[in-house]
């Protein structure tokens, strides 16, 4: 039996729109969105956790570096279940780190720290968790990207309209840093 809910984000979702309700979601069947070349799947978010954390996956092909950004109020976790992802992070003192994470590896990004990542192997998957005093940002993916019912990667990259970069990110605690330079060599 599959239960579907109407939410303020979607006409149909397997995620209940309110906290305090147990639920189960089969692999890949959360709320999905395409953004650039990646598929983001949300399994739990602010509505279910009283804005304490979110839980999502990102799957994608080998590709370009996701632009540098920071989250002023959100801590973010990168756990790699498949493939390889290169994580770039700058701490609050300006020291930069670069680490290739492979299956089973973990990366932690404190709030306010610029970071970016690049998927290094096709069919890589990141499990992400984000939490912080400002709420959660999981709905960023479908509001900057495009919601999808598809289970796979986008057939063509979904590149948002330029004006959405100025409006959507701030609402979800994402600050793009277009002039940020990585000095780590990766």
Describe how the helices and strands are arranged:
Blueprint: E1 31-35, E2 38-44, H1 46-49, E3 54-60, E4 69-70, E5 75-82, E6 84-90, E7 96-102, E8 106-109, E9 115-119, E10 124-131, H2 140-144, E11 146-148, H3 162-171, E12 175-176
Antiparallel strand pairs: 1-2, 1-11, 2-3, 3-10, 4-12, 5-8, 5-10, 6-7, 6-9
Describe this structure in words.
The chain is mostly beta strands. The protein contains 3 helices and 12 strands; from the N terminus they run E-E-H-E-E-E-E-E-E-E-E-H-E-H-E. The strands form 3 sheets. Strands 8-5-10-3-2-1-11 form a 7-stranded antiparallel β-sheet. A 3-stranded antiparallel β-sheet has the order 7-6-9, with no helix packed on it. The chain has a two-stranded antiparallel sheet with strand order 4-12. Pfam families: Cupin_2. Residues 61-119 form the Cupin type-2 domain. This is Quercetin 2,3-dioxygenase.
- Give the percentage of residues in beta strands: 25-35%
Please work out how many helical segments DSSP would assign.
Answer: 3
Poorly predicted ranges (pLDDT <50, ≥5 residues)? none
Gross morphology is globular
What topology, given as strand order, has the largest sheet?
A: 8-5-10-3-2-1-11
Give the averaged pLDDT, no decimals. Answer: 91
Cα gyration radius (Å): 16 Å
Helix content: 10-25%
**H/E element order:** EEHEEEEEEEEHEHE
- Count of distinct strands: 12
For the record, give the distance between the C-alpha atoms at the N and C termini, rounded to a whole number. 47 Å
| Class of secondary structure makeup | mainly beta
Largest sheet: 7 strands, antiparallel
């Amino acid at each position: 039996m599959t239960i579907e809910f109407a939410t303020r984000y979607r006409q149909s979702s397997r995620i209940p729109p309110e906290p305090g309700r147990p639920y189960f979601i089969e692999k890949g069947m959360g709320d999905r969105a395409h953004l650039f070349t990646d598929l983001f799947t949300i399994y739990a978010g602010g509505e279910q956790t009283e804005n304490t954390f979110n839980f999502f996956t990102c799957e994608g092909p080998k590709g370009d570096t996701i632009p540098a950004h920071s989250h002023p109020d959100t801590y973010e976790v990168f756990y790699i279940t498949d493939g390889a992802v290169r994580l770039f992070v700058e701490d609050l003192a300006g020291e930069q780190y670069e680490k290739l994470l492979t299956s089973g590896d973990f990366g932690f990004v404190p709030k306010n720290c610029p970071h970016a990542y690049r998927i290094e192997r096709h069919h890589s998957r990141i499990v992400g968790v984000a939490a912080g005093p400002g709420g959660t940002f999981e709905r960023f993916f479908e509001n900057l990207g495009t919601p999808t019912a598809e289970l796979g990667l986008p057939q063509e990259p979904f590149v948002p309209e330029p004006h959405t970069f100025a409006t959507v990110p701030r609402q979800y605690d994402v600050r793009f840093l277009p002039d940020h330079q990585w000095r780590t060599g990766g």
